[in-house]
TrEMBL record:
InterPro entries: SirB1_N (IPR032698). Residues 45-183 form the Protein SirB1 N-terminal domain. Belongs to the UPF0162 family. It comes from Pseudomonas atacamensis. This is Protein SirB1 N-terminal domain-containing protein. It comes from the Bacteria.
Length: 267
């Protein structure tokens, strides 16, 4: 099976293998990578984390787990501009520096192995974690507790004072949503570093995961434009036009389609 096929096989298990799936994403970008070897490395990390946890009920161990990760050197990557290695899980395991989502995926896998209840929260701009039933969220970058006012402040710090906190921002993320977000992050990071082929690999995965947005088709269309593939660019712009509900965006898409050459057919 290809790395992409192995990725989806991890997702389709009765209990989706999040970390392994993320490592198969890494394998798409590094043909020499062996996810099984990194999973063995992860088992060693899990033992080191476990040895440092306090004797508390498992329902109270999520925050100590995150603090234990800090003790072992894990932290948010503050290198600017942010590099793809901040979202590639094998690199994050190696450097111990990553985006909030990458750190969260490691924490979720550790929690799963140690039977600590913990779920992901698809918070805009900064992925968060939550113990089911708790009245607060947890920052995967250190374990700070975030109550509603903290979440509101975090949201407005990133999107401006007019951005209002809503219940939708606090929903539990499914495995597909987490890996689709990871793929979007990688698509953007590879694009920022002018690696258009790598960004295209991530853009295709975003669409294959389903429930793609108009912006996802537009992102891949822009990559096809840079790679001088007008037929593929037209295909994605047409799909974006079908999905878009923004009249201004629809007008711009129509204008952009009008500037493309007509489809060419190869026999």
């Amino acid at each position: 099976m290809s790395a992409r096929q192995r990725f989806f096989e991890c997702l389709h298990r009765s209990s989706p293998a999040l970390l392994e799936a993320a490592l198969w994403i890494s394998a798409e970008h590094d043909k020499t990578l062996e996810p099984e070897a990194w999973l063995r490395t992860f088992k060693d990390l899990q033992l080191r984390v476990s040895y440092g946890l306090p004797m508390l009920p498992v329902s109270e161990l999520a925050q100590p787990l995150l603090r234990r990760m800090v003790d072992l050197g894990f932290a948010q990557d503050d290198f600017l501009p942010l590099r793809p290695q901040a979202a590639l899980l094998h690199r994050v395991l190696h450097t111990q520096r990553g985006q909030p989502l990458a750190l969260a995926l490691i924490a979720l896998e550790l929690a799963h192995g140690l039977e600590i209840p913990l779920v992901g929260v698809n918070f805009p701009g900064h992925f968060l974690l939550r113990v089911p039933g708790a009245d607060h969220l947890l920052d995967p970058c250190g374990g700070r507790r975030l109550y509603p006012n903290d979440c509101r402040e975090l949201l407005q710090r990133q999107y401006g004072p007019n951005m209002q906190l809503s219940a939708e921002h606090l929903l539990t993320a499914t495995p597909v949503q987490m890996l689709q977000r990871l793929s979007r992050n990688l698509r953007q990071l590879h694009l920022t570093h002018d690696d258009h082929i790598a960004a295209l690999i991530d853009a295709e995965r975003v669409l294959e995961l389903g429930d793609a947005k108009a912006s996802d088709y537009m992102a891949r269309a822009s990559l096809y434009q840079r790679l001088d593939c007008p037929n593929a660019e037209r295909f994605d712009l047409e799909h974006a036009l079908l999905l878009s509900e923004d009249p201004i965006q629809r007008l711009r898409l129509t204008e952009r389609l009008g500037h493309l050459p007509p489809n060419s057919v190869v026999h």
